[in-house]
Amino acid sequence: MQLQLALDLVTIPEAKDLVKEVAEYVDIVEIGTPVVINEGLRAVKEIKEAFPSMTVLADLKIMDAAGYEVMKASEAGADIITVLGAAEDITIKGAVEEAKKRGKKILVDMIGVKNLEERAKEVDAFGVDYICVHTGYDLQAVGKNSLEDLLTIKRVVKHAKTAIAGGIKLETLPEVVKAQPDLVIVGGGITGQADKKAVAAEMKKLITQGS
Ligand SMILES: O=C([C@H](O)CO)[C@H](O)[C@H](O)COP(=O)(O)O
């Protein structure tokens, strides 16, 4: 089980400081969608250049033109790129094809997918690397989480790794770990804490113990 740090509400210099602070405890650094919207793929490039040994995920949430967008994110230095599960089949297959050509990985974000079980099976057959259940900020605000969805995809996904994102905190992590995803994605649960290093260290400990 791995830990991914999601950087969403930060500038590039703030992102660099955060990565420096918690690097030893995280396996993957995510350049979040809001950062890409604000700063462009330059954010991916700068983080990869500053931390060359770190696995960097570009959370582009691709919905169309995946071949081109995966190509651009790869050129910027992303190791993993996200595509939406709600996208057309041809889009997700195009993302996988381009990523494979470049030695990169695709994470499919199932945010907003209603027929989760059926879609997860379909997406799994396209050869994607990760399938991620995700409660976005808007549903987190009305008290939702993705635990049940994680159990659903764990039942039906046979090839891809499983991941979970959305509002995970130190207090809720033990329950998540119990469900055994391959990847746990945490944003505000680390970046919003006073002692980020201590929280990241504790999270890494729980994840290592539970693996
Ligand atoms: O993907 C995300 C969100 O849609 C904003 O782009 C976040 O990275 C993801 O939800 C993890 O962040 P937290 O919910 O703060 O843990």
UniProtKB/TrEMBL annotation:
GO BP: 'de novo' pyrimidine nucleobase biosynthetic process; L-ascorbic acid catabolic process; one-carbon metabolic process
Alphabetized UniProt keyword annotations: Carbohydrate metabolism, Lyase, One-carbon metabolism
Gene3D superfamilies: Aldolase class I
One Gene Ontology term of the molecular function aspect: orotidine-5'-phosphate decarboxylase activity
Top-level taxon of the source organism: Bacteria
EC class of the enzyme, as a word: lyase
Species, as recorded: Brevibacillus thermoruber
Family to which the UniProt record says this protein belongs: Belongs to the HPS/KGPDC family. HPS subfamily.
InterPro entries xrefs: 3-hexulose-6-phosphate_synth, Aldolase_TIM, HPS/KGPDC, OMPdeCOase_dom, RibuloseP-bd_barrel
Listed name of the protein: 3-hexulose-6-phosphate synthase
Domain Orotidine 5'-phosphate decarboxylase: 2-203
Catalysed reactions listed for this entry: D-ribulose 5-phosphate + formaldehyde = D-arabino-hex-3-ulose 6-phosphate
Pathway: One-carbon metabolism; formaldehyde assimilation via RuMP pathway; D-fructose 6-phosphate from D-ribulose 5-phosphate and formaldehyde: step 1/2
Lineage of origin: Bacteria, Bacillati, Bacillota, Bacilli, Bacillales
EC number(s) given by UniProt: 4.1.2.43
